[in-house]
């Protein structure tokens, strides 16, 4: 939850200049699978698109000002971007300018903030 709060603060600060998008992929720690004790949510594995939509609505409460889309049930976006569990990207004019490490350890909102601050100076 702390990382989502940090992400939301970034969205709030830069939303006038930057388009933010969350792509919700398959649940990393489903309540009926590999469960962690620190998860603020209890979301079962997505067995249908409707399941994924319901779970995404829960996620969007943490970043209500950010656009949210869902990966396909075949997880094509997750596969294409190596996003499993979570990953941050900056894409400018169709080019990947920043690719963060894989989450949870590589999910560093501070790196995105630093990149945006440097870009904002130019």
UniProtKB/TrEMBL annotation:
<protein>
    <recommendedName>
        <fullName>Iodothyronine deiodinase</fullName>
    </recommendedName>
</protein>
<comment type="similarity">
    <text>Belongs to the iodothyronine deiodinase family.</text>
</comment>
<dbReference type="GO" id="GO:0042446">
    <property type="term" value="P:hormone biosynthetic process"/>
</dbReference>
<dbReference type="InterPro" id="IPR000643">
    <property type="entry name" value="Iodothyronine_deiodinase"/>
</dbReference>
<keyword id="KW-0560">Oxidoreductase</keyword>
<dbReference type="Pfam" id="PF00837">
    <property type="entry name" value="T4_deiodinase"/>
</dbReference>
<keyword id="KW-0893">Thyroid hormones biosynthesis</keyword>
<dbReference type="GO" id="GO:0042403">
    <property type="term" value="P:thyroid hormone metabolic process"/>
</dbReference>
<keyword id="KW-0712">Selenocysteine</keyword>
<dbReference type="GO" id="GO:0004800">
    <property type="term" value="F:thyroxine 5'-deiodinase activity"/>
</dbReference>
<comment type="function">
    <text>Responsible for the deiodination of T4 (3,5,3',5'-tetraiodothyronine).</text>
</comment>
């Amino acid at each position: 939850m702390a990382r989502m709060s940090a992400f939301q603060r970034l969205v709030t600060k830069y939303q006038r200049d930057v388009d933010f998008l969350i792509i919700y992929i398959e649940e990393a720690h489903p309540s009926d699978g590999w469960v962690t004790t620190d998860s603020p949510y209890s979301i079962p594995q997505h067995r249908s698109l409707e399941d994924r939509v319901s779970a995404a609505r829960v996620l969007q409460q943490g970043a209500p000002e950010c656009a949210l889309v869902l990966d396909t049930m075949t997880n094509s976006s997750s596969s294409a971007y190596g996003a499993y569990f979570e990953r941050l990207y900056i894409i400018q004019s169709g080019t990947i300018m920043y690719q963060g490490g894989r989450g949870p350890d590589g999910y560093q909102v501070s790196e995105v903030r630093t990149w945006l601050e440097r870009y904002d100076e130019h």
